[in-house]
Each structure stands twice: as structure tokens, then as C-alpha cells.
Amino acid sequence: MSKVQFSVQVRLVSNLERSKEFYATVLSCEVNDWWAVRDEFALGFKLIQAARTEDVQPNIAGQGQITPWDTYAYVETHPELDELYEELKGKGAEFVQEPDLQEADWGSWKDFAIKDPDGYVIAFGSGKKH
């Protein structure tokens, strides 16, 4: 069986140059004419200029979901998540979900989410305290 090497999410955007700037500046992605990627494609997007602004349609919340997500990315530990939060905060990210720690019988989960210029929500989470 062939191995998939990486994947990217395709994003229709209303202003390609503005989106490239956001993904480069706020998310620290390497951006070129085709990709916006971070950490060797651990987080990857293909940004495409929409023909019409109304074609840009971020996800809506699912049943029981408070914050709708378009992308959900993981980091190893809560301290790494806190570090990423501070990094994005320092770069002017717009937060739609502040860091939230949830405890369960199986352990703990912590996550937060930001919004890009077109309203796409990118969430980050961790399941380990240390």
C-alpha cells in the first residue's frame, strides 16, 4: 500500500494577498504561490482566490458544537499549546475560543481557536499536561 506523505486543506479566499500575509505573519507558514505550510506540512493549506466573495464559506457549528472549526491541529503537551497561544497572541491573532482546559476520567484536554481574515477557524489542542 502506498503511504500518504502529507495533506493540505483547500481554502477559497476572498483576497489572496491578504490571506497569504495572514498565514505567513500570524501562523508563521512558509507561503508561496501554491502553499501556506508550517512544520513540514504538519499544518498545510492551499489558498485559492475565490471567483466571488459569497463562494467563501467557512464551516458552521455542528450539533453540540459551540465554536465551528475548519481546521483542528494538535501539539504534544499543554505547555507547548500555551507557548503556541502566546506566539499567536503576540502576532495579533484574532481568538474565537480562548484556551479551555477540560478534565475527564481519561485525562485532560486543552484547546483554543483563531480566525483567519475570511472567518475560517483554526483550532489547536493538546491532550497531555506535561
UniProtKB/TrEMBL annotation:
Residues 5-127 form the VOC domain. Gene3D superfamilies: 2,3-Dihydroxybiphenyl 1,2-Dioxygenase, domain 1 (3.10.180.10). It holds the Pfam family Glyoxalase. It comes from the Bacteria. InterPro entries: Glyas_Bleomycin-R_OHBP_Dase (IPR029068), Glyas_Fos-R_dOase_dom (IPR004360), VOC_core (IPR037523). This is Glyoxalase. It comes from Paenibacillus odorifer.
